[in-house]
Write a structure and sequence with these properties.
The complex is a heterodimer of chains A (about 400) and B (about 650). Chain A is an alpha/beta fold. In chain A, about 25% of the residues lie in helices and about 15% in strands. In chain A, strands 2-1-3-4-6-5-11-7 form an eight-stranded mixed sheet, with helices on both faces. In chain A, strand 9 and strand 10 form a beta hairpin. Chain B has about 650 residues and is of the alpha/beta class. Chain B has four domains: about 220 residues, Pyruvate-ferredoxin oxidoreductase, PFOR, domain III (Pyruvate-ferredoxin Oxidoreductase, domain 3); about 190 residues, Rossmann fold, CATH 3.40.50.970; about 80 residues, no CATH class; about 110 residues, Rossmann fold, CATH 3.40.50.920. Helices cover about 35% and strands about 20% of the residues of chain B. Chain B contains 20 helices and 26 strands. Chain B is globular. Classes of the chains: A alpha/beta (about 400), B alpha/beta (about 650). Strand 2 of chain A pairs parallel with strand 20 of chain B, so a sheet runs across the interface.
Chain lengths: ~400, ~650
């Protein structure tokens, strides 16, 4: 029984009033994609709740008019260091967004802490700059409760792989409908230059004057190990490639992890120079395209690269060969949609951690599996189907009551 | 349970044997046996009884207690319960650390606590006897499962001779019952293995106690049939054991007397009642808040004792649109909830003290983002892992101050198990109206304890609906209309809640200091000063009801409490008043901000005594804010205060 010293508090305040067109929670977010689940926000027409649909973007309202890059620039002054790779990524994302054609108000960028995590301030969409490492967790709550939103996470190698490593792997295994852009500059920038979980062994920094001792993470190997359904890598300076990867990620239903090699010109300048310098990149970069033989390097007679990736028959591992010597018969054809992640994993291991030679870029893996938000929403539907819409009075009374009369 | 009835029955809270002179003899007279058979046995009337069931962790004592509670509730007694169990799921069998118990106090009048000392102890084995016998007053009834009093189980707990034979239990009315043998015998037709049959001995014991106290039995039989619906043979076996226990009481000469405790009709307002535990009431309060706010409920949580039951309960109500998310850790639990709050859900995270520590940074973010979020802390013994299954109130200062920077958070604390329902609605109200994280501080005692609850009329629940921002709210110098996410309501200082999906209100928020109004990043010193003070002023200005003082007149001393100590404090105060001591009592539901009249209330008494299950955390806050010489009385043994001990302590504090 209620405590006699604590009566009901009046709840009317100037701010509390009936929202127009409010939906009840029992209806909210329960009929298919139904409604945003939120009072006062326009409902989205349901498209059936089965996982498919390209990227599940069909639940996100379309923009009314034609959009341009300008529409996605916020009024905030961009405050990265001059020459930072983040500028190029921002421009690529702002340039790509109109292509998606989604209502700007239904796009949300969520970030953690670090240089790259300032990203949301510069996008003229909804955005949240949260706390260190937690963006995937926060975005998970947003995406699962609002399936009418396109939710993007912007994070860095320290944010996603060190302090937030747990959230990253769990978002990936759940396959929440998030697009995660992991800016990897292999250094802590915002705290002024300590080594990061992707820094090479022996890295000399302020916190490791005698060289770092930790073996680095390979973010893509990690993602595949965490059951990621979409894994890709691109480079900040290659706008066209970056955009093509963003396009594929946006279209993917579930969590898409995009690692973006990004240059920190202050604390780790030139970390990816070997992949950017035209001559050296020819030997260093393996451009993956689904359905195409994995060839790179200076062109051979057939016009494709003179190097190829083959499977070693003895070990099952992958290795690089010169097709002019060993022929093209054994060269693997890239299959991003292979059911097994084994070959994708092997591809992530090709690069030399120190020299970055044989670094694959492009979409390594893109497979469809059930999307967490969809599954969660389906359970709400099933519960209503099985039990009927919740009735509060029935719930509170329960099955075991007695009546007191006087 | 609490009630408006203030009878002299409070004196009954003094421990006394069930069979004392206070019991009026009405027998021998036939009772209305549940199986229709009359009896020639004597029946006595009691006004209240405290029973404790104790056994091994695997003996099903919690279930037995729950069933007896349910029978008692449906009979119409007032009641209060205290489950007490170890953190280990199955501690080594027959050992002292493995003892699990369930205490139930029921009465024909309103009562406030689960009782200090049991009138009746059911001990399923030597360990249960040894662990609990010290709490028994002389003359208490002791029902012992004699089958377990063999050499090895007794040796395990250090009984060199059998306490049943060595005279050490002479002070009690001992009933030795071979519970295991009788159960196995009753079930011999079922073809169960001995081990399987033995498992029903708790139901035999329940049947015996149900006979002794004239409990209705239909509910338990229906419960068993439902629980074992897929194994009808087990259902029947348990029902059979239950009935065998009843019949044993009815027929054996060892039990000559049975007892009646009349329904507590006069203690209850008219209405429909049910029994409810604190965690269940809290979960229902959250669902009700979601319905009353017309917002979907989102729970982000990570399993932790003693809060997990709320996660379990809310996970069962998906047909209310409840999204329950079991996260990878405590941080993700609150992170997901905060993300959902940004999206326009009524967001909740549930945890206990160690989880609060992990969530601190995100609570700070929620303070900065000014989004509604209910943080439920079911306090337990600390520090660190502490006593996971025991109760304590030692997270008050953590809730109040446990964040970096100036990060004020309102705090609401329920006072009884059923009150958890109203407190959850109140926490949601503050979160939604003021766009702030709110702490709801329950504890292990409230969480697992239960009491009768008058089922509220849904029509009478508070209206928690909010208005989302829908358009620009600010005019710039050039006359253009814009949306400013940190432009505040003039009265509440709440900022607008603009959820994604609303065209034209696109905005970015974050944990970096924001410029007043526009919400843009600002490192300006004067602006930071303004924002820190504004956030504090918003929480200081949260409208909460005045604290009420229960003062029969002439009191010079005020006893001030908060949270789950309400029952024991009120019981202790009743005792003292019964002895002629003038004493005022007030209980705080709002710990931040304090009620506006609290300073005045405190100033009107010569002395203020604050009992707490910590080392004086409320007392610290009161002394700091009101600069009064508040006296602290504290206890941190993982158990609620006992009314008698507390009464004595209060008496000392008054006279000191």
């Amino acid at each position: 029984m209620p405590n006699p010293t604590t009566p009901q508090t009046p709840t009317t305040t100037p701010e509390t009033s009936t929202p127009a067109g409010a939906t009840t929670p029992t209806a909210a977010g329960t009929s298919g994609a139904a409604a945003s689940g939120v009072a006062g926000v326009p409902a989205v027409s349901p498209t059936g709740s089965q996982g498919g649909g390209r990227g599940l973007l069909s639940l996100v309202p379309r923009a009314e008019g034609k959009q341009s890059m300008k529409d996605f620039k916020s009024d905030q002054e961009v405050r990265w260091c001059p020459g930072c790779g983040d500028y190029a990524v921002l421009a690529a994302v702002q340039g790509f967004m109109p292509e998606l054609g989604l209502a700007r108000e239904n796009i949300v960028f969520v970030s953690g802490i670090g240089c790259s995590s300032r990203f949301p301030y510069y996008m003229n969409t909804y955005g949240m700059h949260s706390i260190h490492g937690r963006a995937p967790a926060i975005a998970t709550g947003l995406a699962t409760s609002r399936r009418d939103l396109s939710v993007w996470v912007v994070t860095g190698d320290g944010d996603a792989l060190s302090i937030g490593g747990n959230h990253l792997i769990h978002a990936l295994r759940r396959n929440v409908n998030l697009k995660i852009l992991l800016f990897n500059n292999r250094i802590y920038g915002l705290t002024k230059g300590q080594y990061s979980p992707t820094s090479e062994v022996g890295k000399i920094t302020k916190s490791t004057p005698m060289g770092s001792l930790d073996a680095p993470f390979n973010p893509l190997s990690l993602a595949l190990g965490a059951e990621a359904s979409f894994v890709a890598r691109t480079v900040d300076s290659d706008r066209q490639h970056l955009t093509s990867v963003l396009r594929a990620a946006a279209a993917h239903p579930g969590t898409a992890l995009v690692e973006i090699y990004q240059n920190c010109n202050i604390f780790n300048d030139g970390a990816f120079e070997v992949l950017k310098d035209k001559d050296r990149a020819l030997e260093a970069v393996i451009r993956l395209e689904h359905g195409q033989p994995i060839r790179f390097g200076a062109p051979a007679e057939d016009g494709l690269g003179s190097k190829g990736v083959v499977r070693d028959q003895a070990s099952g591992d992958l290795r690089v060969v010169d097709v002019r010597e060993e022929g093209t018969d054994g060269v693997l054809v890239h299959d991003a949609r292979a059911a097994s992640p084994t070959t994708a994993f092997a591809l992530t291991r090709l690069a030399d951690a120190d020299t970055l030679h044989h670094t694959p870029i492009g979409v390594l893996r893109s497979v469809e599996r059930p999307v967490y938000d969809t599954l969660m929403s389906d359970q709400l539907d099933q519960a209503i189907e099985a039990q009927g819409k919740g009735d509060l009075a029935t719930l509170l009374a329960g099955n075991d009551t007695w009546t007191v009369t006087h | 349970m609490t009630s408006q009835v203030n009878s002299t029955a409070e004196q009954a809270d003094h421990a006394k044997p069930a069979d004392s002179a206070a019991a009026s003899q009405t027998g021998p007279a036939p009772t209305e046996g549940q199986h229709g058979a009359g009896t020639s046995k004597e029946t006595r009337q009691l006004d209240r009884v405290i029973i404790r069931f104790a056994g091994d962790s695997g003996d099903g004592m919690q279930l037995t207690g729950d069933r007896f509670t349910s029978e008692t509730a449906s009979f119409g007694n007032d009641l209060s319960t205290l489950p007490n169990f170890p953190a280990e799921i199955r501690a080594p069998a027959g050992t002292l650390p493995g003892v699990s118990s369930f205490q139930l106090h029921f009465a024909d009048h309103d009562i406030l606590t689960p009782g200090d000392a049991p009138d009746v102890l059911v001990a399923m084995n030597p360990a249960a006897l040894k662990a609990n016998v010290g709490d028994l007053p002389a003359g208490a009834v002791l029902i012992v499962n004699t089958d377990e009093f063999t050499k090895r189980p007794m040796a395990k707990v250090g009984y060199a001779t059998s306490p049943l034979e060595d005279g050490s239990l002479e002070a009690f009315q001992v009933h030795g019952v071979p519970l295991t043998t009788l159960t196995v015998e009753a079930l011999k037709e079922f073809g169960l293995s001995r081990k399987e049959a033995e498992r029903s001995k708790n139901m035999f014991a329940l049947g015996l106690l149900s006979w002794m106290y004239h409990r209705p039995t239909e509910g338990t039989e229906a419960y068993l049939r439902k629980k074992f619906a897929k194994k009808p043979q087990l259902a029947q076996a348990n029902v059979t054991a239950f009935r065998a226990g009843w019949n044993f009481g009815e027929t054996t000469e060892d039990f000559a007397v049975s007892y009646e405790v009349a329904p507590a009709s006069s203690a209850f307002q008219a209405g429909v009642y049910r029994n409810i535990s604190g965690n269940l009431a809290l979960a229902y309060g959250l669902v009700a808040a979601s319905v009353q706010a017309e917002l979907p409920l989102f729970l982000g949580s990570y399993p932790i004792t003693p809060a997990s039951d709320i996660l379990h309960e809310l996970s069962r109500h998906k047909n209310f649109g409840v999204r329950s998310f079991q996260a990878e850790d405590e941080i993700a639990g609150i992170g997901a909830a905060l993300g959902a709050a940004f999206g326009g859900s009524l967001a909740v995270t549930t945890t206990s003290g160690p989880g609060v520590a992990l969530k601190s940074e995100t609570i700070g973010l929620a303070v900065s983002l000014e989004l509604p979020l209910v943080v439920v802390d079911i306090q337990r013994g600390g520090p660190s892992t502490g006593l996971p299954t025991k109760t304590e109130q030692a997270d008050l200062l953590q809730a109040m101050y446990g964040r970096n920077g100036e990060a004020p958070v309102p705090i609401v604390a329920p006072s009884t198990p059923a009150d958890c329902f109203d407190a959850a609605l109140e926490a949601a109200r503050i979160a939604l109206v003021y766009r702030t994280p709110v702490f709801l501080l329950s504890d292990g005692y409230l969480a697992n304890g239960s009491e009768p609850w008058r089922v509220p009329d849904v029509e009478g629940l508070p209206d928690l609906r909010v208005r989302f921002a829908s358009g620009p709210n600010h005019e710039l110098a050039d006359g253009s209309r814009v949306f400013w996410p940190y432009k505040r309501d003039a009265v509440t200082f709440a900022r607008p809640w603009a959820v994604p999906g609303t065209a034209g209100l696109e905005h970015r928020i974050g944990g970096i200091e924001k410029q007043d109004g526009s919400g843009n990043i600002s490192y300006d010193p004067a602006n930071h000063e303004l924002m820190v003070r504004t956030r504090q002023a918003k929480i200081d200005g949260v409208a909460v009801e005045d604290v009420r003082v229960d003062d029969p007149g002439g009191a010079r001393v005020l006893v001030l409490g908060w949270g789950s100590t309400y029952g024991p404090i009120a019981a202790a105060v009743r005792r003292l008043r019964g002895e002629g001591v003038a004493l005022a009592q007030a209980h705080l539901r709002h710990l931040n901000p304090f009620p506006a009249n609290l300073g005045e209330v405190l100033a009107s008494y010569e002395r203020v005594v604050i009992p707490e299950m910590n080392l004086g955390q409320l007392a610290t806050l009161i002394r700091a804010k009101y600069a009064i010489d508040a006296r602290s009385h504290t206890q941190v043994n993982g158990m609620p205060f006992k009314a008698e001990e507390l009464a004595n302590a209060l008496k000392e504090a008054i006279n000191a």
